[in-house]
Amino acid sequence: MKISAVIVEDSRLARNELKELIKNYPDIELLGEAENVDQGFELITKERPQLLFLDINMPEKDGFQLLEMLDEVPLTVFTTAFDEYAIKSFEYNALDYLLKPVSEKRFAMALEKVKLKLNSISDPNTNGQKLSEGSQIFIKDGEACWLVKIGDISHFEIVGNYTRVFFDDKKPLLYKSLNQIEEKLPEQSFFRANRQQIVNTNFIVNVVPWFNGKLKLEMGNGEEIEVSRRQSYIFKDKMSL
């Protein structure tokens, strides 16, 4: 399995060192490199790599800001000369944290983590605009940060100009409209229940007939979601044999 990767690093020397390490791994396909966050954002948005080697301390914007700009976040291995960022990097769910200069042994260990992670994700590399259930999105709510797999989200709900995301026992807010989110979700597993909510059908444990031809969905996390009358007909058709 080829692993597509990009490097975002402001130091040319550090980029060259990473490229030399990557040459020893024919299963890694380097799609490109960038020397700052804005270039990195354009590169990642265009190429949609599975793996990102990311420097933290860069001029103007840092590596953490790049992750916050992305709709879909690749598996991320931070590369930095400063160990002071280690704790914060894992708040961003980084897969690994490499101190420069990066040794061959330490690089090999990081790649082993990458391969194990990719093997645990179904269809990690989405080639179109739609996300897959295995795709990850970055969510920052206040000081808390998460990298969340789409398939682990039970439902989305409008809250003013924000959208609340439900996964595990968390309910952070995402500064995107529900319509923006719906455009990217995999249609086979996500359904627009009403104007305010989108549900992951994999989390539905019971469907209850409701008033005026409507349905009520009981979710695995205890939430109950009412489906509008129009969407109830569509839901029945979609979920029927």
Keywords, separated by commas or semicolons:
241 residues; alpha/beta; Rossmann fold; OB fold (Dihydrolipoamide Acetyltransferase, E2P); 2 domains; 5-stranded parallel sheet; 5-stranded antiparallel sheet; 15 strands; 32% strand
Q: What proportion strand?
A: 25-35%
Structural class: alpha/beta
How is the biggest beta sheet arranged? 5 strands, parallel
Number of strands: 15
Integer-rounded radius of gyration? 20 Å
Organism: Flagellimonas spongiicola
Keywords: DNA-binding, Phosphoprotein
Domain Response regulatory: 4-115
Pfam family, one: LytTR
Q: What does it look like?
A:
Keywords: DNA-binding, Phosphoprotein. One of its GO terms (molecular function) is DNA binding. Pfam families: LytTR (PF04397), Response_reg (PF00072). It comes from Flagellimonas spongiicola. InterPro entries: CheY-like_superfamily, LytR-like, LytTR_DNA-bd_dom, Sig_transdc_resp-reg_receiver. The chain is α/β, with parallel strands linked by helices and about 240 residues long. It has two domains: about 5-120, Rossmann fold, CATH 3.40.50; about 145-240, LytTr DNA-binding domain (OB fold (Dihydrolipoamide Acetyltransferase, E2P), Beta Barrel). It contains seven helices and 15 strands. It has helices spanning about 10-20, 35-45, 65-70, 85-90, 105-120, 180-185, 230-240, and strands at about 5-10, 30-35, 50-55, 75-80, 95-100, 135-140, 145-150, 155-160, 160-165, 175, 190, 195-200, 205-210, 215-220, 225. Strands 2-1-3-4-5 form a five-stranded parallel sheet, sandwiched between helices. Strands 10-9-8-12-11 form a five-stranded antiparallel sheet, with no helix packed on it. It has a three-stranded antiparallel sheet with strand order 13-14-15. Helix 2 crosses helix 3 (about 65-70). The radius of gyration is 20 Å and the shape is elongated. It starts with a strand and ends with a helix. Residues about 120-130 have low confidence and may be disordered.
